[in-house]
Structure to design on (171 residues):
């Protein structure tokens, strides 16, 4: 009987350690998906800016998915890629009062390769994206910069979008 109690105690301690370590996610980053994060910048000053009244949607996604709908003061936006495709298109529609009557918008097209990647036992597998090429229209976008050729699950800005902005008057 004493031996049976020791075995039960040993088994319960072992199971407790396994469950506690299985719930530990310290080996996994907060962003468990490879979601490209785009930040907005002024092409004149190279500093971060906020865009007022911006709508962003993905073209060709199911229902042309709206990512952001007429959001105020946006300085960053996640632009999810489809791992089953090799290209993603995003429309940035400027809804500010000065532009809304004219339907001004830009389209960012990104070509990529989705690469399966095993991160760890805690995180499991995910896709990372190797950027192959990109293009953009230039209604208000001046240029685009990809900070690295591979987008992974690191929780950081991957894309910088530079907008033409009016320079402050120097008087």
């Amino acid at each position: 009987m004493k031996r049976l109690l020791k075995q039960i105690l040993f088994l319960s301690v072992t199971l407790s350690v396994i469950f506690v370590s299985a719930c530990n996610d310290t080996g996994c980053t907060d962003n468990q998906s490879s979601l490209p994060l785009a930040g907005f910048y002024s092409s004149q000053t190279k500093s971060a800016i906020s865009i007022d009244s911006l709508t962003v949607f993905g073209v060709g996604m199911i229902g042309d998915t709206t990512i952001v709908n007429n959001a105020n003061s946006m300085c960053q936006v996640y632009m999810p890629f489809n791992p089953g495709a090799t290209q993603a298109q995003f429309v940035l529609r400027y809804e500010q009062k000065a532009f809304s009557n004219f339907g001004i918008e830009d389209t960012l097209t990104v070509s990529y390769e989705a690469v399966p990647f095993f991160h760890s036992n805690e995180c499991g597998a995910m896709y990372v994206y190797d950027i192959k090429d990109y293009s953009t229209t230039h209604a208000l976008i001046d240029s685009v910069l990809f900070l690295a050729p591979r987008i992974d699950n690191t929780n950081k800005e991957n894309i910088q979008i530079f907008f033409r902005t009016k320079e402050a008057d120097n008087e």
User: Anything to note?
Assistant: The CA atoms of residues 142 and 163 lie 5 Å apart.
